[in-house]
Amino acid sequence: MSVLLAGVSLCIASQRPVPIEDFETGAAERWSFSNGPEFPGATGTFDVVPGAAHDGSGGGQLSFDFTEGGAYVQCTTALPPEPGLAAVELWVRKLVPNRLTVRAVDETGQTFQKDFNLPTTGWQRVRIRLSGWGFHWGGRDDGVFHGRATALGICVNQGGAATGHIDIDGIVGLPSTEASIERPPSSYVVTTFADSEMSFGVSGGPAGATARSGGAVQYDFTQGATSVSFSNDTALLGSPREARLKLRSDGSGHEVRLYLYSHFQCFRTSLGTLDREGVVELVADLTGVGQWERPWGPNEGGVSFPLRLGQVELVERGGGPASGSVTFEELSVTTELPAPDAAVFALANSSATLTEAQFTLTARCVSDDPARAAVHTVIRDWAGRTVTEREDGLDVPAGAAPATFTVAQATKGRSALEAEFTITAPGLRTERALATWAAPMADAGSPGPDPSSPWGMGLYLYRYGGDEGGLAEMDRAAALAQAAGIKWTREEMSWGRIELRKGEFDWSFYDSVVDTATRHGISVYGLIDYWSPWTKPFTDEGIADYCAYAQALVRHYGDRVKHWEIWNEPNIFFWDGPKEVYFELLKRAYAAIKDVDPDAVVFGCSTAGIDTSFIRRTLDAGAPLDGLTIHPYRGALDDEGFMGELRDVAALVDGKPVWITEMGWPTQVGGATEREQAELLARAYIGAVASGAVQNISWYDFRDDGNNPYYNEHRFGVVRNDLSPKPAYRAAATLARAIGTRRPSGVEKWDGDVLACRFGDGDDQVVALWSLHANLAVALDGTGDGIDAIDLMGDPVPTASVGGARLMGLRHGSPVFIRTGGSAIRGRPAGLQLRLDTDAVRPGGAAEVTLDRGAADVGDVAVTWYAPPGVSVEAIGAGRWALRVSGDATPGVYAVPVSVKLASGEVLLTVTVPIVPEVVEV
Q: pLDDT, tens digit, for every residue of 76-95?
């Protein structure tokens, strides 16, 4: 049986895919467009366009323009009244780096959403499961999807290209009986409460005789304590469905609570009471976490993933014994796997001795059966050349302790190394895990201050402890920053920590913070926030108290701290009062600071993103500022668009100084790789300063905030939690040393694809250059007999001499610094390039690569490939190779380095191989 709905045929009785939209007839009437009016500024359209078709004559094209702000644009259509749809499939072509969002509306009018991204490689089939949602709002607003999905929305988000479009076509619904969309649940043990797994604490009063050994707790509530808890910030793998706590109860009647963390959020539920003795299992349904109590954090209408284990707490309940014993045995989680064959979760990290780097693979099998895995390890230098390659076996137990495997590599003479582990096991999909090692800088750097330097970093020295150990660690972090050439740090002058009670100040800890930074030649700019517990937030009295505190800060630190920032990201939840009150706070704080120090520089706005609407409101309210601070986070970096945005916002504030006081890309699993982070840091720093619109830029943040590999907030650092450098640390050091305090002197575009940023004047110039889109060789004229070029790790870049020019390979998005030749250097694409004959390769597929010599007279060449696991290369003719991808290759973007040796030197080229699955599941 079939019926016609809005021009679309539906097969009701069949379990075959249900047609929803093919954009052939009357489609424009079935779709609506929104520019996200709650975040003003975005514009765009949704149209049926012949050139947007995957099949047939037309496809849907969602265009966007974020040059005036905004957060997203959306196209929406009604879904057919087909019961039991579990997923929607569609074709998507995305040639922009922006992330996408999918939204669905249930029968109560409640909207659900989740984000995803796709490779920018042309058409891709996408399967959107109508479950596993992150955020929700409207309708019943309970986080439970009621009935069928009534509408589907696709959004393009700001953060990437400022303008562009995506194309969609061929939308169908998949019934719940489709076996391919089922994701079976699997259980694993999160913790056994061993001392090494969970920390232990006592709250509410003195601990008395409370003691802990592993999961066994002797609690004592006689001295005032009201609870004991186990804590650990551990990501819950997959899509958690249920938590099960096994313990040995004393029958005391005391309550057991479970806390889970999300992004800036905490959720709490009661697992039950200990109303009987012996072994007890307490169970929590994790599918409705968004409806739990929220002890802290904003209510953003949903839950950000991954969920993380926070605490397991035993809470005193009246009528129960004041002391007793409980043994917590294990906490397990039932989770939905990313795919039926995705039971192995792999991580990699590095450590180092004085002579070698040690790369460790950790693999956990979340299934009922153990895995006998094969591990292929490749260690490469920063240029991508293979240093070590080996095969090993690894037994991964089921649902228990993870298996580990370590490979050591000598580091002598190297600045950075990258290890790639490829893990294969019968019946399971192939997994990849990456780890990097970067060498610390060889010298200590200059301890002298240099306020003219634009290179900052959020060292956040105030986050270290005030005891002897904490101060020593603080000094070590500042010394690392000094060695990298960092000359500025943003430090939060916590009001509640300094002014304990009105008019009573304790400067001792912050004196150590400022002294430590100053001792290492690092200037401090002070962030003045948040409300002190004793004041009245968002009131006239609270503003007066804030201004008095700001004056006290300036009196105490004004000889060393001359720059002050008024609040952090008041355009979002860090300021949860009326925005007009912030404008008044800025006015009065500005005047108060100037009364004490007329030469002080007072920054305002400090917006999350480049929120031009909020900045305009601030200016329209008459709030004065000496400079603007912004936090232009984004998912991807469109270099030219980024510089244009910065120039536009500088014009908005009439050319006042613009400082970027936060910006960064984290390296959690699923985020940027550590290599990508280094490249993004360098491009953001160089582009911001080269734009001429930004006088100072700081990364968020210097040190990882924790050790959870799946949580983005723990992985923004350029050094890890143990202070070992990531490649981004060396990238920051390289650009700070190479460019120094030279002022920007021009941005050039060489034949459309090479961006060259000049710093300095006359013969004292440094040119930072990188390719915007392609991997290619550049010919540099005016270099004389040689060229002094270094990569992001500070290592020499190999070159060759051809026709009076120097040839040098550029890897897409990876800057190179030319430190000699100055104004005489001019560049142009050399024509020497390796070209792939397709946009993407599927697992099991192949592509052809051709060496394009262009007009370059390079003569005979010797080519060496450094192919990654899962990719093989075979010569099929002069300057032609077949590149084959194994059927079990892990999807992702692979950069394949190639050494091209000429008679006059070597040019390192790269082939970027996007390996994409048949269907991307969301």
A: 999 988 777 889 999 999 98
